[in-house]
Write a structure and sequence with these properties.
- By secondary structure, this protein is α+β, with helices and mostly antiparallel strands.
- The protein folds into 3 domains: 1-51, Orthogonal Bundle (Ribosomal Protein S4 Delta 41, Chain A, domain 1); 55-96 and 196-210, Orthogonal Bundle (Ribosomal Protein S4 Delta 41, Chain A, domain 1), CATH 1.10.1050; 101-189, RNA-binding S4 domain (Structural Genomics Hypothetical 15.5 Kd Protein In mrcA-pckA Intergenic Region, Chain A, Roll), CATH 3.10.290.
- The protein contains 10 helices and 5 strands.
- The chain has helices at 8-15, 32-35, 54-69, 73-84, 90-99, 102-108, 115-123, 151-154, 157-165, 201-208, and strands at 127-129, 132-133, 146-149, 175-178, 183-186.
- The chain has a 5-stranded antiparallel beta sheet with strand order 2-1-3-5-4.
């Protein structure tokens, strides 16, 4: 399946909740979901959302989380299979694997305004891990890894603007961040409690376990 290239605000309206796909804009009065929370389409305004079946709830939760991380179905399912083969609790391991993606870590550290933007920064070679340039968004970040914006990139207007916007951002408990210098360290692996938005991972487990 190809990557979605339409308006990400429509994804929030489809799911019936904010997925925070556009970074700071989602917290402002410019948020499209706040202005128009109805489902997209000509018949969206004033239309009641239908009562959803058990399968529908599972599907919607799976789609919601997949869209939050911006993954295609085959890659998303691959993470689930990996989590299922782990000795831990499948749902929690699954979310941890998603959070440990390099693009997600770059976003959570405040080096990008959204996960999509973080993915672009990684692909374009602006991000280093332990001093080595990594251009793979799915790179699995480990404990004690040092994540930084490349020296010749951090002075660009784009990053300076991001650092300014995120100057008051509170980093996740699993990381220490020096936003001014564009670098941070993963001091521990993210846990279930570190997920910053409501997720019912058991529904995803049930969906793939049918």
């Amino acid at each position: 399946m190809s990557r979605y290239t339409g308006s990400v605000c429509k994804l929030c309206r489809t799911e019936g909740e904010k997925l925070y796909l556009k970074g700071a804009r989602c917290y402002s009065d410019k948020c499209a979901y706040e202005r128009k929370p109805s489902t997209p389409g000509e018949q969206g305004t004033g239309r009641r959302r239908r009562k959803t079946s058990e399968y529908g709830l599972q599907l919607r939760e799976k789609q919601k989380v997949r869209r939050i991380y911006g993954l295609q179905e085959n890659k998303f399912h691959k993470y689930f299979v990996e989590a299922e083969n782990d000795n831990g609790i499948t749902g929690e391991v699954f979310l941890q694997l998603l959070e440990r993606r390099l693009d997600s870590v770059v976003y959570r550290m405040g080096f990008a305004r959204s996960r999509n933007e973080a993915r672009q920064f990684v692909l374009h070679g602006h991000i280093e891990v332990n001093g080595e340039r990594i251009n793979i968004p799915s790179y699995n970040v480990k404990e004690d890894d040092k994540i930084s914006v490349r020296e010749d990139s951090k002075n660009k207007d784009t990053f300076q603007e991001i650092f300014d916007i995120n100057s008051n951002l509170t980093p996740p408990e699993w990381a220490t961040v020096d936003l001014e210098n564009g670098e941070g360290t993963v001091v521990s692996l993210p846990t279930r409690e570190d997920i910053e938005y409501p997720v019912e991972e058991h529904l995803i487990v049930e969906f793939y376990s049918r």
